[in-house]
Amino acid sequence: MEIMSSSRGENMVLVKKFSFEAAHNLVKYHGKCERLHGHTYRLTVKVEGPLNEEDMVMDFAELKKMVEDRVIKKLDHSYLNELFEQPTTERVAIWIWEQLSGPLRECGVRLVEIELWETETSGVVYRGEKV
């Protein structure tokens, strides 16, 4: 029994979570985070688009590969200060957005939001907006 017929045109948001380990120290900050320390970062990527011919926004495996190749492989077990002048969670989130937004657009979806958490209680949300 088919519960719902296939209907394209619905816009949906696809969500995929990742994690990576990295160390940093905040050179423009005065407090305990100016010393070298590490985090288990948690990244959530949200993309939006219409259902395709397979009734998916995007294949989870395709999104996973893109994020792993363009972001995780570069950041995991890295010293973030070698990649960023001031490796705050905010700056890393902007960089992740820049790595993903164009390639995702080429796949026919739009990067809506990323969340980047450096601890269980501290993180940022970035939507690609410029102030």
TrEMBL record:
Keywords: Lyase, Metal-binding, Queuosine biosynthesis, Zinc
Residues the entry annotates as binding Zn(2+): H24, H37, H39
Record: active site: C33, H77, E118
Enzyme Commission number(s) from the entry: 4.-.-.-
Catalytic activity annotation: 7,8-dihydroneopterin 3'-triphosphate + H2O = 6-carboxy-5,6,7,8-tetrahydropterin + triphosphate + acetaldehyde + 2 H(+)
The UniProt record lists the keyword Lyase: yes
GO BP: tRNA queuosine(34) biosynthetic process
Cofactor note: Binds 1 zinc ion per subunit.
Gene3D superfamilies: 6-pyruvoyl tetrahydropterin synthase/QueD (3.30.479.10)
Cofactors: Zn(2+)
GO molecular function: 6-carboxytetrahydropterin synthase activity; metal ion binding
Pathway the protein contributes to: Purine metabolism; 7-cyano-7-deazaguanine biosynthesis
Record-annotated membrane-spanning stretches: none
NCBIfam families hit by this protein: queuosine_QueD
Family under the similarity heading: Belongs to the PTPS family. QueD subfamily.
Name under which the protein is recorded: 6-carboxy-5,6,7,8-tetrahydropterin synthase
